[in-house]
Each structure stands twice: as structure tokens, then as C-alpha cells.
């Protein structure tokens, strides 16, 4: 291994590093604000030991940030070719870990997805995302997605779906949903847009089945089918059997939603969806988080109440405000302007990751780059959507902002593996 400065001073993408540091720094300020107590004496912290300080989320987050910086050095020092070479091996180890986790983890908030190593708790599902990204990137580097066989499609689907299935077995549905983000990377590598359209149409149908009476949907889809056939009878008459098959599948989905909703989903999952559809259904129960979250964000106004001045934050009206609902602190204390800056940081980072991904010369590097962008984009959209009532509460952290070692380490690893691959590309170009 060469020394870090000699290898990376000129090659690493410092714009991305700066955005990362800004987001982690702003994230820590909001973690501190979310756990700050105005009643604590000013000199109380100076008398506490390290072990006592570790009871505070803001202090533990400093420790996680410090270890993340060490992790960055390790990721950059490792030969980037190792990420390609070891992708399948890491994937296999991850699958074994996901299988055994529900059996050895103790239940926390109804989920058996956390491993306790002394004072540190790790969530394997967080690390499964970047390891799966490495594995599918290596697989796609060996095939042409535009011309792949049915066998290739099955292998890719298996690589992508196996981790979320095991994560769901540990009762961690939110983390499993993130794997849908890989579809965006596959689309960039040549996956047919028809697949995305079919999946999007299926999602719309399922949502409509929850919102609209079944009889209306049955009549609506039947009328649409008749109109489509009548409008272009000469061409579509040859596809009547297929059209009837599609109609039957759609109707089956519509009436199958009730069975899935009532017999497959757990009680808390059903209530979260009900609250999303009707926020006023249980404002003091399941809807409490979202209701208080929207109050906190709305109360910030244009410029916010000021750092450490958030009343919703100080009086713990919003549960999990350091983790899943960290954006509430941003909205309340920094207002609309601070929220736009936060969103701007994410847009800037995603745009830069896309730029880095596009300049990769290898399919492996480009695919991995788009996996990174897709995962961060999914977390960003769902997390902020949760806090403003546009998405169900599924326990997805806001990258680089939410409190937690597993989250910070996994996103740091996800991002800096890409920067290591990109730095190696730039070094290769300098040799020629």
C-alpha cells in the first residue's frame, strides 16, 4: 500500500469530500440540538467521565464521526481493485450474517436486526446495501444488460432480492424497501424502461386499491380496456387474449390488496398506511409522530426559531428526533431557508456522484456509482417524505444527518469506495 497523500492528493474528488464533511458537520449540529437540554448546568459536562458522556447522543455521534474518518483512510488506502475482486466473497459473508442475525439478536422495538458488540450496536442491514451494490456491479460488469439472457436476469434478481428477504425476516421492513433503489442503476445500464413502467403501474394500482372502492376500479379498468380496443380495433384485436390476461392480473391485484393488507402486514404496518391515507385517523396514537413532525417543521417559518431554540425539540414532542425525524430539527430551528439548504446539499451531492459515475471507464465503477446515488436518493426522499406526511413511517435514516454509528459508517463506506475507485481511474489516466 502506498501512502495516502501520495496516492490521493491530486486524484480524489475533493468536491464530494467537501460536501460529505459539510453534511456530516451540519448533521451533528442538529443531533446536538435534538438532544440538548436547556435545564442542564453549563459546567455539568466537564465533570463527567468518558463513559458518562457516552450516554449523550451528540457525544456518541462525535465518536462515530471520528471512527468514520479513520474508516475513510482505510477505504482509500486499500487497493481499489480489491472491491471488485472481493465483491462476491463479501456478499456471501453478508448473507450468512443476515441469516444468523434474527437468531442471535435481542428484540429492539419489535425488530431482531441489531447486533450488540459490547457498547456498540450494529445493524447488518445497513452494510448489506453497499455490499450488494458491489456484488451487482461486478455481475453487470460481466454481461450486457441490454442483451442479457433470462438466466442473467434471474441471477441479477436473486442477488438483489435475497438480502431484503432476509432483512424482512428480521422484521426490518424499512431497510428492505431501500433495495428497490437498485432499479434506477439497472435502468442506467440498459434495463428496459418497460420494466420500470410495469412496476410503476403496479404501484399506482395498489395505491388506488387502498384509496378507491373496488367496484369503481373494476368498472374503470374494464371501461379503459374497452375504449383502448375500440380505438384501434384492427391492430389490437389480435391481442385480445393478452389484454384479457392483463385485465385479470390487474383485477386480481385490486382484490388481492385486502388480503395482503389484512393478513400479511403486521398491525403497526397497517396503522402506518392508514395514517398516511387519513392523517387524522389516530392523531394521539400512531399518527402522533407525523402530526408533531409537521407541527415542528411548520413552526419554523421562513428562517426558523434559531439554534437550540426549538420548542418541539426541547420538550420531546417528536419521538426519534435524533434519528428518523432529524429533519424536524432542521425545519424548526433553521426554517424554510435551512431546509432548502439541506435539500440543496443533497442535490449537490447526488449531482456530483452522478458526474463521478459517468466519468468511470469501467462498467463496474459506473454501475457502483449509480447504485450509490440511487441508495442515497431513496433514503433522502423517503426520510423527508416521512417527516412531512408524504410517505409511511418505515424507519429509514437521513444519510449523514441521522444519529447512529451503523448509518454513518455504512453511508461513509458506500461513498468513499466510489471515491477510491474514481481516484484509481484518474491515476490510470495520468500514466498514459
Automatic annotation (TrEMBL):
UniProt topology in membrane: Multi-pass membrane protein
A Gene Ontology molecular function term of the record: lipid-linked peptidoglycan transporter activity
UniProt keyword Glycosyltransferase present: yes
Transmembrane segments: 12-33, 58-78, 85-105, 165-187, 194-210, 216-233, 240-261, 334-355, 367-394, 400-421
Pfam families reported in the protein's UniProt record: FTSW_RODA_SPOVE
Entry GO CC: cell division site; plasma membrane
Compartments it resides in: Membrane
GO BP term, pick one: peptidoglycan biosynthetic process
UniProt-listed InterPro entries: Cell_cycle_FtsW-rel_CS, FtsW/RodA, RodA/MrdB
Taxonomy, superkingdom: Bacteria
Keywords assigned by UniProt, alphabetized: Cell membrane, Cell shape, Cell wall biogenesis/degradation, Glycosyltransferase, Membrane, Peptidoglycan synthesis, Transferase, Transmembrane, Transmembrane helix
Main location (coarse class): membrane
Name of this chain's protein: Cell wall polymerase
Species lineage: Bacteria, Pseudomonadati, Bacteroidota, Cytophagia, Cytophagales
Amino acid at each position: 500500500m502506498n501512502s495516502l497523500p501520495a496516492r490521493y492528493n491530486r486524484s480524489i474528488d475533493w468536491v464530494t469530500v467537501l460536501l460529505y464533511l459539510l453534511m456530516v458537520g451540519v448533521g451533528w449540529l442538529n443531533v446536538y440540538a435534538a438532544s440538548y437540554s436547556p435545564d442542564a448546568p453549563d459546567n455539568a459536562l466537564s465533570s463527567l467521565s468518558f463513559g458518562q458522556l457516552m450516554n449523550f447522543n451528540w457525544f456518541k455521534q462525535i465518536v462515530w464521526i471520528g471512527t468514520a474518518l479513520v474508516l475513510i483512510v482505510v477505504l482509500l488506502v486499500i487497493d481499489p481493485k480489491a472491491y471488485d475482486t472481493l465483491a462476491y466473497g463479501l456478499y456471501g459473508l453478508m448473507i450468512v450474517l443476515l441469516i444468523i442475525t434474527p437468531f442471535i439478536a435481542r428484540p429492539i422495538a419489535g425488530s431482531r436486526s441489531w447486533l450488540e458488540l459490547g457498547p456498540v450496536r450494529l445493524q447488518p442491514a445497513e452494510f448489506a446495501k453497499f455490499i450488494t451494490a458491489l456484488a451487482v456491479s461486478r455481475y453487470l460488469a460481466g454481461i450486457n444488460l441490454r442483451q442479457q439472457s433470462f438466466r442473467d436476469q434471474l441471477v441479477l434478481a436473486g442477488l438483489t432480492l435475497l438480502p431484503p428477504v432476509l432483512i424482512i425476516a428480521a422484521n426490518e421492513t424499512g431497510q428492505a424497501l431501500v433495495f428497490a433503489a437498485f432499479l434506477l442503476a439497472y435502468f442506467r445500464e440498459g434495463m428496459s424502461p418497460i420494466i420500470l413502467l410495469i412496476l410503476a403501474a403496479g404501484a399506482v394500482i395498489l395505491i388506488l386499491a387502498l384509496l378507491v372502492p373496488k367496484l369503481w376500479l373494476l368498472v374503470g379498468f374494464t371501461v379503459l380496456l374497452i375504449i383502448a380496443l375500440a380505438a384501434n380495433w384492427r391492430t389490437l384485436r389480435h391481442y385480445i387474449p393478452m389484454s384479457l390476461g392483463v385485465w385479470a392480473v390487474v383485477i386480481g391485484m385490486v382484490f388481492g390488496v385486502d388480503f395482503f393488507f389484512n393478513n400479511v402486514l403486521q398491525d403497526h404496518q397497517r396503522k402506518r398506511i392508514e395514517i398516511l391515507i387519513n392523517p387524522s385517523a389516530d392523531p394521539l396514537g400512531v399518527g402522533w409522530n407525523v402530526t408533531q413532525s409537521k407541527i415542528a417543521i411548520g413552526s419554523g417559518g421562513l428562517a426558523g426559531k434559531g439554534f437550540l431554540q426549538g420548542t418541539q425539540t426541547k420538550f420531546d414532542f417528536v419521538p426519534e428526533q435524533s434519528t428518523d425525524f432529524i429533519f424536524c430539527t432542521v425545519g424548526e430551528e433553521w426554517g424554510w431557508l435551512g431546509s432548502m439548504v439541506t435539500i440543496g446539499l443533497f442535490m449537490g451531492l447526488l449531482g456530483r456522484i452522478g458526474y463521478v459515475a459517468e466519468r468511470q471507464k469501467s462498467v463496474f465503477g459506473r454501475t457502483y456509482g449509480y447504485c450509490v446515488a440511487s441508495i442515497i436518493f431513496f433514503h433522502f426522499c423517503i426520510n423527508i417524505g416521512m417527516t412531512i406526511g408524504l410517505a409511511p413511517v418505515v424507519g429509514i435514516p437521513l444519510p449523514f444527518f441521522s444519529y447512529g454509528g451503523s448509518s454513518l459508517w455504512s453511508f461513509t463506506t458506500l461513498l468513499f469506495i466510489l471515491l477510491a475507485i474514481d481516484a484509481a481511474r484518474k491515476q490510470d489516466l495520468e500514466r498514459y
